[in-house]
């Protein structure tokens, strides 16, 4: 370690090697010019064409590369010209039944993930309940079988699930894991806001002050604030805009009137502060169900088109013939 304080002598690493090893490295070293990467393509200036001189924009050819390429500036674009993602290749080998099964499995997994995400958001409440079962802190907790801790956890789990549904976590829209995590964080933030509002109401009752009035936790203003974006313009005196009313009516128009009346009766039996949360949660679940139904319908239509194409080409299978006899087209 003399190099730490002997700065006057500068010896290269190669001189410190064993002579036989140094000769071996010189002998085995590759000879010839070193390979170099191609330089980024230069942007060509578009020359005016007769079509462009007449006031119409000229069409400029652009070389694009898929996101899998390490060089997004256009280098090696000729190698990626016929590239097909692996997901597309896997989908080509699937039958119509396989695609429909994947769609149903994805929807069921999304439904099950609501419970898993709510469990993650209520991890502290669950841990408190678990520790109470193991070592009750008071005789009251032991005598009531940790009833208070269990109610706290069950309420957290129920409300977190409703917030996730209301925020659209169950929809089949294509989302990245980061977007799913953002919805999870927003659901927990809204739940903490609801607890703060309830604590302020209880404090006002104990002090004899007027009970403060709060906007619904799932109002457009609060949801936009929790998600860190600008709230949309709403109608005066309400928490929803005109487009939101149209979307809600569009969803309810696909539900049977008998089911809607039964739901409204159950909703009226809930406390006023929970009615809006329950309504938004059911609305989010209905949106997910209708979206799933549309995708299944599109899958059946695509399957029927493919069966008709195979029949016209003389390549109909036994299953295609049986479905045609059964009236499936």
Oligomer: single chain
Q: What's the mean pLDDT score?
A: 78
Number of strands: 0
User: Main sheet?
Assistant: none
Distance between the termini: 84 Å
Helix count? 13
Overall structural class, as computed from helix and strand content, comes to mainly alpha
Net shape: extended
Supply Rg.
32 Å
Measured by DSSP, the beta-strand proportion falls in: under 5%
- Poorly predicted regions are 1-10, 55-61, 235-240
SSE arrangement, N to C: HHHHHHHHHHHHH
Indicate the percent of residues in helices.
55-70%
What characteristics describe this protein?
329 residues, mainly alpha, 59% helix, disordered N terminus, Autophagy-related protein 6
What's the structural blueprint in terms of helices and strands?
Blueprint lengths: L18 H10 L21 H4 L32 H7 L3 H26 L1 H12 L4 H5 L3 H20 L10 H31 L12 H7 L15 H11 L4 H12 L3 H41 L5 H8 L4
Question: Can you describe what's shown?
Answer:
The chain has helices spanning about 20-30, 50-55, 85-90, 95-120, 125-135, 140-145, 145-165, 175-205, 220-225, 240-250, 255-270, 270-310, 320-325. The protein has about 325 residues and is mostly helical. It has a domain at about 95-240 and about 255-310. This is Autophagy-related protein 6.
